[in-house]
Design goal:
This protein is an alpha+beta fold. Helix content is about 20%, strand content about 20%.
Length: about 80
């Protein structure tokens, strides 16, 4: 399932999905699909992505999609120059 989303296998020890968000759209009518989405969410979260599960709108089919997040600006902490 992850390969269908374009994520594929990972390099060991790397959080290669940082800065991405995976949205699972599930209505809960199929317990097998819900189980697959839950397992995929755990794997994706372990690799550094954010996970969101939402209920589909009227007429919308269950699916999953990967969204790139905008990079958040990091606040710079000033450190003293001379440490004795």
């Amino acid at each position: 399932m992850l390969e269908n989303l374009g994520i594929g296998q990972r390099v060991r020890g790397r959080k290669d999905l940082r800065g991405k968000k995976v949205v699972f759209v599930d209505d809960g009518s199929n317990p097998y699909r819900t189980m697959c989405f839950t397992i995929a969410a755990k794997l994706v979260k372990k690799r550094g992505a954010e996970v969101e599960t939402v209920v589909p709108g009227p007429g919308e089919a269950a699916h999953a999609k990967v969204v790139d997040l905008a990079p958040q600006p990091r606040s710079r902490v000033q450190r003293p120059l001379n440490r004795w």
